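We modelled the chain as a single entity of 162 amino acids. Its sequence is:
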Amino acid sequence: MHRNQISEKFSLSGVYKLTCPGCKKAYVEQTGRSFTIRYNEHKHAFLTNSHTSRFAQHLNEHAHSFVTINNSMQTLRYHKKGAYLNTIERFYVHVEHDSNNELNDSHTIFPNAIFANLLKTHSPYHPPPTPHSPTTSLPRSISQYSNTIHYIHIRNKADPKN
């Protein structure tokens, strides 16, 4: 990937994941600013040992290093702030929590039966359909859950009782 493509990738907003280089635990969050600006806020919190970033706090508490944006940040979804992005963020936090891999604060983790069922049903460890069961094509990556999450968001918006 060329330098322009890298900087362009981090110039947008959406949901991202920071991975600790020491233990591979993940911190998932959304931002309405550019990913670069948010990364720099985490970096500043790390350098000043501030408690404004759970990710930086983890690195400092465990003496792990702060690495470059290209080595620690993964963009999960590009989107502007709003209810849809909130749903996407909750899904990715749920994914990391379900894997016992998250660094997020406990107040950002909400049980969600739909997300749990999606992950259980479409797990890479889920056995393929037998010849006597209906065949389904299972998503190959988490990003392919996006259409289902979008549908859930639209449905909940239309019927707040759900």
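As a brief sanity check on the tokenised model: Confidence is low (pLDDT under 50) at residues 125-140. Residues 67 and 89 are 23 Å apart (CA to CA).
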